[in-house]
Amino acid sequence: MANSRVRWGMVGSGLMADLIIPDFALVENTELRYLCTRNPETTKPKFAKWGVEVPLISDFDAMCNDPEVDLVYVAVPHGLHYEHALKAIEAGKAVLVEKAFTLTQAQAIDLAERAAAKGVFIMEAMWTRFLPLYLQLQAEFAEGKLGELTFASAFFGFPLPLDESHRLINKNLGGGSLLDQGVYTVTFADIFFGGVEPVSVSTRGSLLPNGVDGLTLVDLDYGNGKFAQANSSISTGLGTEAYLATTAANIHVKGSFWNSDEAEVITVGQTGEPVVRTIIGGKRGAGYTHMIEAVSADVLAGRTQSAVHPISNTIRTQGLFDVILAQLGVSYDA
Fold first, then answer.
1. What span, in angstroms and rounded, lies between the C-alpha atoms of 158 and 195?
2. What is the DSSP string of 238-294?
3. What is the dihedral of CA 252, 255, 259, 265, to 10 degrees?
4. Residue 100, preceding bond cis, omega within 30 degrees?
5. What angle do CA 112, 113, 114 make, to 5 degrees?
């Protein structure tokens, strides 16, 4: 690619736009060329909140076929991801798709195969994997500083009103806790157990009246005495904490774990007195900058996958979501 900046076209002007758009200004190798929204006039007032003005467009097909767009970033509700990503791939664009990547593993495999056939970049926007704190923790595990991981647990849950117009409740849009919050709790285990497939998955939970999962409690058995819990909810206040238990320490990933910049490594000796070491990651902006920068670098280099988050990661976790949803009795029309 001759350009020194990758020109992104983003579709979706909801919460994800509010969170990520200010971070584009902090990244030198990226330009947000367009924001595609059904209602440009109602989106303009957000410019003051974002601190930036973005060219608006309402025609997604036109954006996909615009020669001044290099990458299409899909940030619409989950149930619409597949069709939007497919159009971008068919137009020959690199594509970044929000979480959950698709409703099913079959859809994820299909998009991966189509992108490979077109020779274009494809990735799920799992920004957590790019955060400095997570990269530092993984490096310390690799160096043996944190002991051997035996147990991971993550919680992401809060109660929502039963309003089917909300994307997290609406089944047609891929509503339910797993494909929003649970994407992070399952990925937390996947990151620190190194992408190993669990030998068994056991799920408990409860459904909302419209058939989406309101409370999802997942036990993952990785064999050899290694376990994880991945818990999510849109009906119960589970909190937002995550922990790693090792043969040497307990590690608390603080705050909203999927966007954390701080962890405490707690060791307790025979005296029972804890020793606490704090790790600070050093993220920039809201934390999306690291993923944006890495994705644009990959596209500029002509790569079709990310080394940090290859599409095989997404296919693997989407397979786990299929299993979890089946155990809960949840199915989507996909």
1. 27
2. -BS-EEEEESS-EEEE-SSGGG--EEEEEEE-TT--EEEEEEE----TTTTHHHHHH
3. -20
4. yes
5. 95
Q: Which stretch of DSSP H or E encloses residue 221?
A: strand 213-223
Three-class secondary structure assignment of 146-201: CCCEEEEEEEEECCCCCCCCCCCCCHHHCCCCHHHHHHHHHHHHHHHCCCCCCCEE
Q: How far is it, in rounded angstroms, from Cα 246 to Cα 299?
A: 37
Average pLDDT over residues 28-34: 97
- Residue 309 maps to a domain: no
CA distance 329 to 237: 22
Average pLDDT, the chain: 95
% the chain with pLDDT above 70: 99
Is residue 111 a contact partner of residue 102, using CB atoms and an 8 Å limit? yes
Q: Say whether both 269 and 144 belong to one domain.
A: yes
CATH of the domain at 210: 3.30.360.10
Q: What is the pLDDT of residue 334?
A: 63
| Sign of the C-alpha dihedral computed for residues 176, 181, 185 and 187 taken in this order | positive
- What pLDDT is recorded for position 168? 83
Residue 103 belongs to domain spanning: 6-126+287-304
Within 10 angstroms of residue 246's Cβ, the number of other Cβ atoms is 19
Q: From CA 108, how far away is CA 100, in angstroms rounded?
A: 10
CA–CA separation, 205 vs 87, rounded Å?
35
Indicate whether 310 belongs to any domain. no
What's 98's DSSP letter? P
C-alpha closest to that of 306 among 31, 90, 122: 122
Paired strand residues for 226: 223
**Residue pLDDT, tens place only, 4-19:** 999 999 999 999 999 9
Q: In what order do the strands lie in the sheet with 200-207?
A: 200-207, 213-223, 226-233, 149-157, 242-246, 250-253, 262-268, 274-280
Q: How many domains does the chain have?
A: 2
**Within a domain: 324:** no
